[in-house]
Amino acid sequence: AVPAGPRTRTTETHCPYCSLQCGMAVTAGDRPPTLVPLDFPTNRGGLCAKGWSAHELLDHPERLTRPLVRAVPGDRTSPLVESTWTEALDRVVAAIGATQARHGRDAVGCFGGGGLTNEQAYAFGKFARVALRTSAIDYNGRFCMSSAAAAATRALGLDRGLPFPLADVAGADVVVLVGSNPADTMPPAVQHLQAGRERGALHVVVDPRRTATARAAGLHLQPLPGTDLALANGLLHTAVAEGLVDEAYVAARTTGFAAVREAVAGYWPDRVERLTGVPVDRQRQVVRALARAEKAVVLTARGAEQHRSGTDTATAWLNLALALGLPGRPGSGWGTVTGQGNGQGGREHGQKADQLPGYRRLADPADRAHVAAVWGVDPDDLPRPGRSAFELLDALGTDGGVRTLLVLASNVAVSAPDARRVVSRLRDLDFLAVSDFFLSETAELADVVLPSAMWAEESGTMTNLEGRVVRRRRALDPPEGVRDDLQLLAELAERLGAPGFSADPETVFAELGRASAGGTADYSGITYDRIDAEQGVFWPCPATPDDEPAHPGTPRLFTERFATPDGRARFVPVHHVDAHEQPDAGYPHVLTTGRVLAQYQSGTQTRRSRSLALVAPTPRAEIHPDLARRLGIAHDDVVELATRRGRARFAAAVTDAVHPDVVFVPFHWGGGSSANALTDPALDPVSRMPAFKVCAVAVTRVGGP
Length: 705
Ligand code: SF4
What we know:
It comes from Geodermatophilus telluris. This protein is an alpha/beta fold. The protein folds into 4 domains: 9-57, Single Sheet (N-terminal domain of TfIIb), CATH 2.20.25.90; 68-143 and 344-538, Rossmann fold; 146-336, Dimethylsulfoxide Reductase, domain 2; 589-703, Barwin-like endoglucanases (Beta Barrel), CATH 2.40.40.20. The chain contains 24 helices and 30 strands. The chain has a 7-stranded mixed sheet, covered by helices on one side. The chain has a 6-stranded mixed β-barrel with strand order 23-27-24-26-25-30. The longest helix has 19 residues, at 85-103. Bound molecules: iron/sulfur cluster. Iron/sulfur cluster (SF4) binds at residues 15, 17-18, 20-22, 43, 47-48, 50-51, 186-188.
């Protein structure tokens, strides 16, 4: 129970940021809003610095509370000036009409985000396919989760980040974290790891950086960036060689192992040591521990997945987990640690270029017919799958590309790879509309900026990293002049003559349930009342007839069968390929990017937080002492990093936490310190994930502190 004053109201909701969706109570009334953590299963009373400071932004002086339009319509060199919703929406609708009349339906595009609620993500996908009838929609989760999602779908028939509750991690005897750093990205989750360590569990972290998570682990493997696949194949080679494969499980629950056994035959330990830098004895130690543990968990995250071969890398770790009989075994399994707050739900309900709600596929006739019936449209009128996120952005303003773009909850000018090229493409648009809380780097380029409601001002649902659907509850009214994105989409659809768009979240959620019914991500049995009563509900949760008990939801997947047609998991043989860019004489080092504790994603919100700015005011380039010595760089010197795409400057942090040949920079900033001005947009052929984690870089000292 949270004490509240006589004129205040306390509402239980969840943190606006990452996929842990920590429970918190917000008290609003005749004083600035305050918050306290709640004892929710994922955070158990904890919050990180980001969560503790989330309420600071609700009444931030830079908060947008009026629509902005260009003083001279069509002239983006003219200033953005305050306007009315009527005028702003008039301009958006006029631009949509003019563009589609001149260039066709697909010339209007939509770009969404993993921070949208399930209802908003669903409505955005429907808006694109029904109100605009465009194929051009994708979202920023393509830059985050798409490789793991593709690997899981290929092997297990279903993509749910963790196929088990997070609390299972506490009970595992061995946990292997690959490219995951929860101590910085989601600190309350560390409680679950800590509980395991106190019981004597072995935790292994695979990461080129000695992160806070790696320092706390029993074992840290430090492979060169881009070699995780070779390491996983090497571990499986050792498992085969030492007779550690769970042959009974492989025979009963999987298909395709013979091809994988053959594929890993060439990954003998000393070759893997040469490729990855991980010593042979460490490889053996890890695979033996994993194989002998009663309960063992393998988790991958962005470090393993954001590569040109990200899908195959996640697959290699899945192959290892399957060979050791982990997925579906009580207390064991493979999972991926989702990043964004609604990264999971955001990829289930139709924002993706190739997907319809409930993970239905836009290319599948039966799936099209089901969703078209819910939407009251002809299946033949639904567009075909469109371009993936980077491909959509890279074609902006071109013949055959999008010329009018609507962006919700995404700051691609900072978060996209090769970000300056993306900014140039955004400038090529005929018209750009952005809905956001603040004037982000993307919103600065827009013709129209629409001020949107923040987390504590809106209602809806989010799906956390465990597949648990939770309620985002409205704790206070938005400032006058601010609208929820659900309202925005309903009003735009009405102006475009498309009926059937509600602004009421519960109505939209019920429709989402019908659209997802029978799909793999089935929400049809979930209601707001059930979520309230049960601390969230795990999907799939199909509706049942009135005279039958309600479906309990599914905290643990794959206990009896996998979601493939024959119920068996599929091994997929994969091979190491070199990263798209290799160091050479011009760019002699390896650059990798990632996150820091006190910032979130593109930083649109967290860079404006006073308390977080005290912790992480500017980005720093981490450089190993040996490399720093060779280049004449001291701690706090200003260094310029140059890649084939651009240059950016950072203060140097000389630290032996990074691999001697690797430079690390966080990606939360834009401008002259934009990490993504440097990154490589080479795409994974399956997931279309850019190669954020590896490129070749030159490092030069340009000045003192
Ligand atoms: Fe929890 Fe993530 Fe919010 Fe931190 S950012 S409080 S870990 S939900």
